[in-house]
């Protein structure tokens, strides 16, 4: 009779050796798999940390940009107010200058009218002066003629009776003024 107990022991030893090898292989596979997973988890964790750092940096940049944007918005509003104030001030100055220009134009018109009036008066006075000069010249000629007659008369009165007695009539001219 074959020794069944020995065969069973041998089978059992083979199965136990195979089970130990399988167990060792499973443990090795498990350890390798765990090591790879740990390595992948570490890389993922590092990627997550990097992503968090990057997200934090993006948040800080976003906050800085928001603060900068608010600052620029305030500066923009301030500049808009200043621009509006300048436009209002310039509009007021332009209106004031327009009023001044209008007043100066009125003054210029009045001055021109006054100058024209003075020029007419001057022309009238000049015409009167010319008429008086002509009249003075006529009287001077008359006086010279009288003086000549007087000188001739002192030479001889009989010669005076032979001359016809002249009559002078002077009509002064009136001059019209033209501007």
From TrEMBL:
Keywords, in A-Z order: Coiled coil, Intermediate filament
GO biological process terms, semicolon-separated: intermediate filament organization
Alphabetized GO MF terms: structural constituent of postsynaptic intermediate filament cytoskeleton
Keyword Coiled coil recorded: yes
Coiled-coil region list: 69-128
Pfam family, one: Filament
Domain IF rod intervals: 1-150
One GO CC term on file: intermediate filament
Gene3D superfamilies registered for this protein in UniProt: 1.20.5.170, Single helix bin (1.20.5.500)
Lineage: superkingdom: Eukaryota
Record keyword Aminoacyl-tRNA synthetase present: no
Family: Belongs to the intermediate filament family.
Record-given protein name: AINX protein
Organism: Xiphorhynchus elegans
High-level lineage: Eukaryota, Metazoa, Chordata, Craniata, Vertebrata
